[in-house]
């Protein structure tokens, strides 16, 4: 029984330890961050989805906007400055990026949109994202706000809504150096 209690406590500490290691990396600056958009309802986009109209998309919930504000406060307080932010054009990603980092440095970037079902188009999206990541050489942090499918395709790993993965290019994909979990 004691063994199970210790395992439970240890597993509960893992996200906190991973988060602290992630902040330590970002304090040094010069890192690339994949950030999954904040909390949205459901999954998949409605049938009448239009990239130009937020009213046709899954948008941040009140809890998602609150999560994004918390993320912004923590990025400001705990990391080196954020030099550049690219975001999917989907409203849940753009709103997350703008709440966290402000309008002035957020750039919509179509390759970060939800990954295409067409394999060639998806490869072109990932290639464009990898090109941006490989070209980055700034001293501040570079953040890309996107969706679960994109993160999985680039890293082979999942991320919670509002979770940040600190990454570096490795081979054809990205190696995860650290994570930050925003509860």
TrEMBL record:
Keywords, in A-Z order: Signal
Residues spanning the signal sequence: 1-18
Keyword Secreted set for record: no
The UniProt record lists the keyword Ribosomal protein: no
InterPro entries found in the cross-reference section: His_Pase_superF_clade-1 (IPR013078), His_PPase_superfam (IPR029033)
Superkingdom as given in the UniProt entry: Bacteria
CDD domains per the UniProt record, alphabetical: HP_PGM_like
Official protein name in the record: Histidine phosphatase family protein
Organism: Borborobacter arsenicus
């Amino acid at each position: 029984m004691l063994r199970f209690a210790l395992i439970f406590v240890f597993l509960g500490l893992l996200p906190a330890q991973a988060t602290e290691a992630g902040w330590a990396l970002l304090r040094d600056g010069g890192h690339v961050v994949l950030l999954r958009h904040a909390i949205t309802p459901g999954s998949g986009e409605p049938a009448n989805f239009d990239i130009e109209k937020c009213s046709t998309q899954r948008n941040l919930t009140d809890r998602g906007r609150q999560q994004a504000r918390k993320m912004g406060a923590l990025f400001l307080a705990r990391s080196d400055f954020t030099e550049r932010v690219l975001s999917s054009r989907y409203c849940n990603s753009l709103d997350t990026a703008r709440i966290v980092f402000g309008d002035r440095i957020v750039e919509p970037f179509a390759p970060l949109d939800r990954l295409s079902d067409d394999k060639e188009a998806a490869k072109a999206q990932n290639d464009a994202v990898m090109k941006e990541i490989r070209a980055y050489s700034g001293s501040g942090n570079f953040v890309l706000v996107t969706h679960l499918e994109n993160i999985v395709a680039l890293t082979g790993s999942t991320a919670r809504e509002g979770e940040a993965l600190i990454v570096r290019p490795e081979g054809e994909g990205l190696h995860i150096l650290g994570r930050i979990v925003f509860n």
